[in-house]
Amino acid sequence: MSDAADCEKGARPGKGHAAFHAPFNPWLIAVVATMATFMEVLDTSIANVSLPHIAGNLGASINDSTWVLTSYLVANAIVLPASAWLSSVIGRRNYYMLSVALFTISSLLCGLAPNLEALVGFRLLQGLAGGGLQPLTQAILVDTFPPKMRGMGMAAFGLTVVVAPVIGPTLGGWITDNYEWRWVFLINIPVGVAALWLSSRYITDPPFLKRRTGNDRWGGDFLGLGLVAVGLASMQMMLDLGEREEWFASNLIRTCAALTVICLVGGVYRAFVHRKPMIDFRVLRDRNLALSCVYMAIFGGVLYGTTALLPLMMQQLLGYTAQLSGLVLSPGGMVIAVLMPLVGWSVGKIDARWMILFGIVMVALSLEWMAGFSLDVDFATLVYARMLQGFGLAFIFVPINTIAYATVDADSRNAASSLISIARNIGGSIGIGYTSTMVARLAQTFRTHLTEHVGDTEPAARAALAAIEQQLRTVDADPVRNELLARAMLSDSVDRQATMLAYLDQFAFLGAAFLILVPVVLLMRRARTDHPAELAIE
Which CATH number is associated with domain 3-220+278-445+498-537? Predict the structure, then answer.
C-alpha cells in the first residue's frame, strides 16, 4: 500500500510527510508564503503613529480614528477561527491566494478612502481578508520543510510575525513624515501583486491534506463557529476600547464582556459535542500543542505589551518623536532576524526545551532591566535593553513552534496553526489592554503617594520650590508669578515621576509573568527530528 493511502487511513504524521516532497525548493516557498503575511502582520501596527494625521486629514477626532486599528484587529479575530475550515473546503492554496487578492484590493481601498467611515469599513475588509494568512503560512511551512529542517521553516515564519510588528511603528512614522499617511496602506499593493503571482506558481497542497468534497462539503457547525467568532471579536473590542470607555462603567464594555463569556463558552461546548465541528478544539488533546497554545498566549502578551509600552513611555516622558522611538525598537528586531536562522538550524541538534528556557531567562532579565529605568535613561540603554529582549525572543519562537507540531497529525495541522494564532492574538490583545490600563491607574496611585511628600510642610519640597524660583528670577522679577510657575513645574515633575513608576511597574510585572512559562516548558515532551520517517517523542 502506498504512503498516500496510509495517510488517508490515518498513518502517523511523519510517514505522510516523509512521502511528500515539495515540488520546489523549500526556501523559495518560504519566501513566497511569507511575503503577504509579513505585510498583513505589519498592518497591525504600522498605522498606529499615523492616527493624528489620519484624523486631521479626514476631519475626525483622535478617539474616532482609533477605530482604524480596532476594526482591523476585530476582523482578524473573526476570521481566524474559520481559517482551518475554509482551507478544508476550498483548499489551502486557493484560500491563501484568495486572502492575498482580497487583502491587496482592500489595501488599495484604504489608501483611497475619502472619509473616516469608509476607511474603517475598508480596514474591516482588510482584516477579514488577511486574518487567515498567519495560520495558513505556518501550516504551509510545516508541511514544506521536512522534520529535520522544520526549525528553519519556523524561523522564516518567526521573522514574519515577530519582526513585522516591531518595525511597523518605525516604518509607519517614516512614511507619514516623508510622504502621506495613505502610503501606509498603498505599499501593500506591489507586494500583494507579487505574492499572488508567485503563490500561483509555487505553492501547492500536499497529497495528505484532506479536502472536503461532495454536496455536503459546505456543511458544519456554523452556530459554533459564529459563537467563537463573535466571542473573540467582542473580547478584542473590550480590550481595545476598555480604557477609553472607562471599562465597566460603559454599557458597551459590559455588553462586550457578556458576549465574550457567553459566546466563547457556547462555541467551545458545541465544538466538542457537534458531529461536524468547524473549529477542531479536539486537537488540543495533544499535550504539546495545548501547552504551546498556553505558552503563545503569554508570549504574545509580553511581546505586544512591551512593544506598545516602550514607544508610549519614550514619547510621553522622554520627548522622543514617533520615528526616534521606533528606532529604539528596530535593533531588537534586527537581533531577532539575525539569530532566528541560527536557532532554526540548532533546533534539530539541541533539545528545544533548553533553548526555550534560556530565552525565557533572557527576556525576563531584559524586562527587569527596563524596570530599573529612570527619566534620565539614555538612547543607548534603551536600545541595549531591547536588543537583549530580542536575543531572548529569538530562542523562544522557533523551538516552541517546532514542539507544537511534533505530534500533530498531518491533516490536523491547519486546525493546530489556527488555534496557535488565536492564542497568540488573544495574548497580545490582553497584554496591550491590561498594561495600558494599569499604567493609567497606577500613575494616579503613585501621584497620590508622591504628592504626600511635596507639601509645604516638607523641607525637601520647600527647597525644590526655592531652587526653581531662584532660576525663574533670572528671566522674570515678579515673585507671585514665579511662585505659581514654580509650583506648576513641581507638579509636572511629580506627574512625570508617577507615570514613569507606573511604566516600570508594568515592565517588572511582565518579567515576572514570563517566568510563569518555566513550568509550562518543563511539562512538554521533547521533540526529536533525527528520524527521517517520523517524529519521535520522548
Answer: 1.20.1250.20
Consecutive H or E run containing 522 = helix 517-522
Residue 536: its H or E element: strand 536-537
Q: Which residues of the chain does CATH 1.20.1250.20 include?
A: 3-220+278-445+498-537
pLDDT digits over 64-77, tens only?
777 777 778 778 77
Query: DSSP code of 525?
Result: P
Calculate helix-pair angle for 133-144, 92-112, nearest 10 degrees.
140
**In terms of C-beta distances under 8 Å and separation of at least 24 residues, what long-range contacts does 48-51 make, across chains too?**
48/168, 48/169, 48/172, 49/169, 49/172, 49/173, 49/176, 49/311, 49/322, 49/323, 49/326, 50/172, 50/173, 50/175, 50/176, 50/181, 50/184
Q: What is the pLDDT of residues 15-40, one digit of tens each?
A: 444 445 556 778 888 888 888 888 88
H or E segment to which residue 11 belongs: none
pLDDT of residue 1: 37
Cβ atoms within 10 Å, residue 137? 29
SS3 of 407-450: the string is CCCHHHHHHHHHHHHHHHHHHHHHHHHHHHHHHHHHHHHHHHHH
Cell output for 80: 481566524
Predicted TM-score (pTM) of the model is 0.74
Backbone angles phi, psi at 454, to 5 degrees: -125, 25
Alpha helices in 274-351 (DSSP H): 287-317, 322-347
Pairwise CA distance, residues 96 & 133, whole Å? 7
SS3 114: coil
